[in-house]
Protein: Aldo/keto reductase
Amino acid sequence: MKTIKLGSSSLEVPVVAVGGMRINSLDKAEAERFVQTALEEGANFFDHADIYGGGACEEIFSEAIHMSASVREQIILQSKCGIRQGMFDFSKEHILNSVDGILKRLNTEYLDVLLLHRPDALVEPEEVAEAFDQLERSGKVRHFGVSNQNPMQIQLLKKAVKQPIVANQLQLSITNATMISSGINVNMENESAVNRDGSVLDFCRLHDITIQPWSPFQYGFFEGVFLGSDKFPELNRQIDEIAEKYGVSNTTIAIAWLLRHPARMQPVIGTMNIDRLKDCIKASDIVLTREEWYAIYRAAGNILP
Ligand SMILES: NC(=O)c1ccc[n+]([C@@H]2O[C@H](COP(=O)([O-])OP(=O)(O)OC[C@H]3O[C@@H](n4cnc5c(N)ncnc54)[C@H](OP(=O)(O)O)[C@@H]3O)[C@@H](O)[C@H]2O)c1
Structure:
């Protein structure tokens, strides 16, 4: 699989990341087969969060991969913290406690990447900085990033945080592409021109922050998968036509569309199906033409001015 450097760091990561949010839908043998296949296919970057399955997903993963010192060397582990029941919490105490819990559940001594999961309205950048410094000094976390943050929120953090923010995990799919369409429709009177994210896409490109699109196959907020959905007939016709041309599945083309963007994104896929996992990974070898990329963009109902 092709790789990219994560943000401004020297960490080389596969272009497709494997998400762990749904691993608790598998039994033990299925989970072992799934992570083994991912490793065989070069998909050794795993995304977790302390809240997935209430912590169970991280435990299931570390058991399935038979975590050991030698396994740990072959994989890149990312996890997230900062979401609590009914609130968000970027306090120093919560971040430090969360990381200890994550490391215990993943059965490892360090995370390659820690992301702050969702913006905390009560964030104190100085407290985050103290937590990050402590985690870096102790060797518990090597790189830091955020998720679902806009440019000003990142700038606010950076007022105190000295480590580079290497990643920003954001919802992005062909059918959830407002960060792209608002850039295309700048200053128009239409709905697509509404800038909901403070131009986060350009900001991340300018500051070498890798965008990790989450839910790359969903429309709405986990409403369903757009592939094969009768809600998107034109999009599916267009994707199927391009898939046939390349001799791949529609799943491959949906990921290839994200990878074609010059921001050099790293989609985080959520499938727990081995064939679909392989199809997502195949996207690493496909470079869509400009014509194909725009045809898919338009077929989803995204507009050009
Ligand atoms: N930072 C955040 O706030 C945030 C939020 C949500 C998720 N995430 C991360 O992003 C990852 C992906 O999220 P997600 O699971 O919602 O993403 P997704 O890849 O868009 O959705 C995967 C789901 O769609 C199903 N699916 C059905 N048909 C499919 C097809 N043709 N191709 C691919 N999937 C198909 C999968 O079922 P099968 O298993 O049967 O294939 C699976 O249940 C998570 O694991 C998590 O790591 C982050």
